[in-house]
Design goal:
Layout lengths: L2 H19 L3 E7 L1 H12 L8 E4 L7 H4 L2 E4 L12 E7 L6 H8 L2 E11 L29 H12 L4 E5 L6 E4 L17 H10 L7 E6 L5 H16 L3 E4 L7 H14 L3 H7 E3 L2 H7 L5 E5 L6 H10 L3 E6 L10 H12 L4 E5 L10 H9 L19 E6 L1 H6 L1 H14 L6 H8 L3 E8 L2 E11 L5 H8 L9 H9 L10 E9 L8 H13 L6 E7 L2 H9 L3 E9 L6 E8 L2 H24 L5 H4 L12 H11 L5 H15 L6 H12 L4 H8 L4 H22 L5
Amino acid sequence: MSQEENWRDALASALARARAANFRAPVLIQGDAPEIDAALWPALELLTPNQQIVWVGAPASPPPTLQTKLEVLEAARFQIRLGQEIDCLIFDARSGFHADAFAALTGTVRGGGVLLLLTPPAQQWPSFDDPDYQRILAHPFTHQDVDGHYLRHLQKHLDNASGWLRVTFAGNAKPIIRYTASNTPSNAVAHTGSVSQSAVITALRALIAGQHDALAITADRGRGKSASLGIAAAHRIAERAECVLVTAPSFAAVATLFKHAEMTATELGLDQERLKQHLIFIAPDDLLQRLPTADIVLIDEAAAIPTPILASLLEHYPSVVFATTLHGYEGTGQGFPLRVFPLLDKRRPGWRHVTMSQPMRWSQGDPLETFINDALLLNQYQPAPLPTAWDESELNFERLDGESLLRSPQRLSEIFQLLTLAHYRTTPDDLRTLLDSPGLDVFVSTVRGRVLGAVLLSHERPFTEPQLIDAIWRGTRRPRGHLLQQLFAQQMSVREALQRPMARVIRIAVHPKRQGRGVGLWMLQALKRTLEQTDCCLIGASFGASDALLQFWEQAGYRLLRLGGKRDHVAGAYAACVAMSLKSEGEALISQAHDRLVRRSAFDSHHVFAREPWILSRLPTQTQEALQAREIELLQLFVEGSRPYENVEDLLLILCAQTGLTHLEEKAAALWRAKVQQQQDWSEVARLTRLSGRKQITAQLRECARALLTSLETAGAPAG
């Protein structure tokens, strides 16, 4: 029997076992690219003509017989496949291992289908120059600065995984073929009180519109959560002609919901046009602003929507359904019960919670699901227990590198779990960042060996190349990483910040049992003492602002330096930047940045945060003064196209107050009055001026500013 027949027979057996159990067949193929590619295409002929193959990566030229059913997909575009099902997924890790894409796309493989994971030889994979490193490398780090801890972590889990077919190609030698039987019974987590899809649909149909009712649905991926929402929505519309609003972080996240609603409508004889009129998707921020009338609101992937938005929707709409996955590519939802269930207890007494644990696309105990949960650390639902009695003197604070995290899987798991509980956008990619990202430090506080809290810190090295510094200042370059330095330069107008070493807190997380008891403040103080021994001049953070978060950072000694003027389209929060000096040069940078905040305060108080009393109380008061030399430089950058309108909108008001509008033609003056002085929105200004849109309006405003600056210069510009 030839090598090709051996390999094809092994694949055929794996597929037969998977189909018999309604599992997905996971196949690991490792070796040199030429041998793998030569053997792979003939093996894929095993698949029937109507089975679709999705190849993630860059395959060699496929034979004509496979071209019609082969779809090549870039890993970064994985979201276009959400809500769909496929028979065969080839994940080519030789083109880069994109963790979010792997987690998401494996979830689209139906029971009886197959995953083929292609990697370099096992011994070489951790040192492989993975193209995906580019996404985690801050300037000026290169692939050579990555130690491959994450790939070692994956390889270890692959070595220990059950239910996998492993094929190793090594030159002209006979391929090594191994199969490890699945563990039975399944080690998947069982949820007390879990219900079937039909029971969830019944609960959704029984929800009483307009009666201050609420239902929470939690599930793992592939449990039919979104399908249940769609089926129930179609029934409610057919039976009661209700208006059902759907919201989620993106429409892609609810594609399955709408697909099953359409299928159910067809079965019920409900006209598709009528369905579209009554089943409406609105993005969270838009929904919060418009608050249209509805009988019931379905919030899918609710864990990825911040609690304040959920609270506002719960306040306005009497009948609300919260549905969310407990983990996955959308962001993890493990913190959802901790954040939202108390809110439901307070505002919806008698609300109901159902959990779906039975898979719909595959059978319980699927070996691929088990591997993904274990390898990507998605399989824990409760934070690790802490010692029952201890005092602050027992607290330790230490830095951990990727190697030490790899050697301590329990500690790695505890840290990653705290991060998923603390932040709704934590995804599988973050585990790779944790283990591999150069310039990232992981600090933990422990008590008697258990993790109490964690801080992720990014070091931002100073830029030294004059051309690069100038390009960043002018907005033509945005090197990866260095968020804090570029915020100082671009948003706070402190160019010198680009040449100073800084550190930025990316995440801070505390065990749920110890939140609100000063642990976070203690960690920030310990971090400050550590960084004072380095060359860092300051430490800062950027986050979605809330009253409680700003209080926390201010209590820790950080100063508010910037508030963005637009809400995040998902988080619904204004971006805040805070910082604390570690050295005198850091204090000088913070002082300059704070001066810019003070200067904007009058404008922001009247035009941006007029309806946000909790923000207004934090803004300093400032009387209008003449433009300073630094501010004139910013306006010149705006004229040249190197700053956006929002960056200088307050200074444009001061400019026209100093110069008047007599230097502008009447049409230009009308444009200026409408946008700069009256603060009308872009669409209204376009209507009034008959300009095509924002781009053309901004171009005209730049020319107006140029003329006013020229008149100011003629009159005598202020000293710096």
